[in-house]
Specification:
EVE_domain, 6-stranded mixed sheet, alpha+beta, 153 residues, EVE domain-containing protein, ph1033 like fold
Length: 153
Amino acid sequence: MNYWLMKSEPSVFGIEQLAKAKNSTTGWDGVRNFQARNYMREMKKGDLVFFYHSSCEIPGIAGVATVQREAYPDPTQFDKKHDHYDEASDPEQPRWDMVDVKLVRKFDRVIALDELRKHADGKLKDMIVLKRGNRLSITPVTKSEWSFIESLE
């Protein structure tokens, strides 16, 4: 099993919307960064995901989801009316993928980015989301990072 962190702006799609989705499951569309897409292509059904709220008052980890469906072409890349449309994407060789995720649980509180940063010199020293300049919406998480963060809940 692998572990991941996936960022979403709660004003666009937060953990509450995931909880209200049919079967608490949704497609994670709109990823338009090649490295994040490549990470998504590594995801396997059953992998665990920290659902991270970004660009909000208190950014941080809001809960846990699981990958329900492995990477497949993101249909929004072909929809000219959609914000995620990419005119350079070819239906014969799609450029962008998505995965389906299902809510496992919401945390009682958001584990804030500031709290995670307090451990950046210790247990979370190599965590990608805490690296200066990192803006990727999807990053891998090590098993030890995962276990430590869960202990903060």
